[in-house]
Amino acid sequence: MFSALRKDGIRVSRVLSLEHGRLRILDEGNAARVLAAVPPALPGVTWRYRTHAGVITAQRLWLQVKLRQPVRLALNGGGPTPVIIPDVRLDILEQGYRARKPGTYTIRILLPFAPDQGITLTIVVES
């Protein structure tokens, strides 16, 4: 399933199917049945942090999210581009991360010129 925004701002979806080893776009009726079975996506959570004078700071170092809820990291202000090291069990999305199973996950954020200093964001995923 691929989603996009049309020029008029309406979200449209294309649903692909694998039939006899070939991809094909489903017609509107079949696509509607497939889309009806897909639960709506949860809104994402944005975690903001900043770098200043070689130090990474954030208001809190943990998040609690629901299963499959996206988490986005947002750097406020200037400074060097940090090195992001997500937990290997997290799915990498276009603009964030998502967990497939409940549990505790971590994302390590380091500055390139001070890799021994950094912070760890803990993400608690509930079912």
Give a verbal description of the structure.
It is a single chain. Helix content is 8%, strand content 55%. By secondary structure, the protein is mostly beta strands. The chain folds into two domains: 2-37, no CATH class; 45-126, Cupredoxins -  blue copper proteins (Immunoglobulin-like, Sandwich). The chain has a four-stranded mixed β-sheet, with no helix packed on it. Strands 6-5-8 form a three-stranded mixed β-sheet, with no helix packed on it. Strands 1-2 form a two-stranded antiparallel sheet. The two termini are 24 Å apart. The model has no long low-confidence stretch (mean pLDDT 86).
CATH class of the largest domain: Mainly Beta
Mean pLDDT: 86
Strand order, sheet with most strands? 7-13-12-9
Helix content: under 10%
Count of helical regions: 1
CATH topology of the largest domain: Immunoglobulin-like
Biggest sheet character: 4 strands, mixed
How many angstroms does the end-to-end distance come to? Answer: 24 Å
Q: In total, how many domains does the architecture comprise?
A: 2
Work out the radius of gyration.
19 Å
> SSE order, as H and E?
EEEEHEEEEEEEEE
Global morphology = elongated
Strand content: over 45%
CATH superfamily of the largest domain: Cupredoxins -  blue copper proteins
What structural class do helix, strand and pairing data support?
A: mainly beta
Uncertain stretches = none
- Level-2 CATH architecture of the largest domain: Sandwich
Q: What is the number of strand segments?
A: 13
